Amino acid sequence: MQVTELSAEGLKHQFKIVVPVGDLTAKIDERLAEMAKTAALPGFRPGKVPVGLLKKQYGQALFGEAVEAAVNTSTAKAIEDRGLKPALQPRVDLKQLEEGKDVEFEVVVEVLPEIGKLDFSGIELERLKAEVPEKDIDEALERIGKANREQKPVDPARPAQKGDAIKLDFVGSVDGVEFPGGAAQDYVLELGSGSFIPGFEDQLVGAEVGKPVDVKVTFPAEYGAPELAGKDAVFKCTVKEVLEFVDKPVDDELAKKNNFENLEAMRKAVGERIGQDYTQISRGMIKRQLLDKLADTQKFAVPEGLVEGEFNAIWQRIEEAKKNGLKIEDDEEKMRKEYRDIAERRVRLGLLLADVGRSNNIDVTPEELNQAVMREAMRYQGQERQVLEFYSKNAEMKDQLRAPIFEEKTVDFILELAKVTEKSVTPEELLKAAREAEQEEEGSEKAAG
């Protein structure tokens, strides 16, 4: 094998490789000898087929196999001998491919950049920190009380109000003829819930127990039952009971109903949960700060092929969004330039974080990966077992959960080395800052995703 380096510009290396015909012939003869041991053709016993006959019948296919193997092996060796780290699959261009002659081809390979050791101690970042006010905990406990509310008969009796629940019997008819599914007894309906067709609930506001009410409505034109769509209907209703919702008091009983020992324990857990939410928001903001600073300060070259792949993925989403009605500016070339810059930024940050992680032996443990699988399963209530089985049988899909964990651990590593100052803010200030940061990011990346 003869390797000639044609060019080495930036991250792109180009070689010319020549594989002598003798090497190919030797490989083909070796394969023919192996085949001859077991080959069977009409008129010959197994293992007695002449090699010349096998070559006549299978020579073309064996030549193709030998060429493919030679290209792969020689390309890998040329890259390994030069200590290159490919960023993408090498691109091969065959120049001479003819039986009885040397095989000549050119290889273009883009390599990963040498990032080198980075000093993160000079990066200055600000972490916003919000304490959880007692009023936020009080409001959260009140919401829990509302979520656990109970229905009780109104006392003293009064007409039904919006927000009440009523127990009623009703019978519906169209042109005086009752229709299937249009009647019920002891049906409990919350007035204002919007669970019935438009206008139905409004006409029962003010209804009294025992007094019949004729509710006149028109079924929507797109109603699910075609025989009723667009038709006028009358529901003869009789209210049997008016119920009001009573929020559960925020006390030990409510806490125990929600699996806490007492109100103090529930209050502490609620405060911690809100605090975790604030911490997560703050974490997202400081991570964005860090990535922005890394993108601004680290300007090493990135493989064009990786950028092109990322850009194509972004632009495909743009095209899909255009089909769904997204309006874009007229200057498409300007848009392409903006999104290519975004693609380059993403690739550069991805390579940088990957290099930092590898250089500092950051890894994702089996326990962390299993926890990620469990979190994914919990997203599909009622289907947790199927999700767990899916990931247990699909190692590649499970590995996809590894990348975000690796990234977060690497970011944590850099944050430990950076100069981080904390600033105390109110929850309102934290949420406002987070919204503004998100809007700024959305404005810069638009529909890039």
TrEMBL record:
Residues 428-437 have a biased composition (Basic and acidic residues). The lineage of its organism: Bacteria, Pseudomonadati, Pseudomonadota, Alphaproteobacteria, Hyphomicrobiales. It holds the Pfam family FKBP_C. It is an enzyme of class 5 (isomerase). Involved in protein export. Acts as a chaperone by maintaining the newly synthesized protein in an open conformation. Functions as a peptidyl-prolyl cis-trans isomerase. InterPro entries: PPIase_dom_sf (IPR046357), PPIase_FKBP_dom (IPR001179), Trig_fac (IPR005215), Trigger_fac_C (IPR008880), Trigger_fac_C_sf (IPR037041), Trigger_fac_ribosome-bd_bac (IPR008881), Trigger_fac_ribosome-bd_sf (IPR036611), Trigger_fact/SurA_dom_sf (IPR027304). This is Trigger factor. GO terms for molecular function: peptidyl-prolyl cis-trans isomerase activity. Residues 428-449 are annotated as: Disordered. Consists of 3 domains; the N-terminus binds the ribosome, the middle domain has PPIase activity, while the C-terminus has intrinsic chaperone activity on its own. HAMAP family: Trigger_factor_Tig. Residues 163-225 form the PPIase FKBP-type domain.
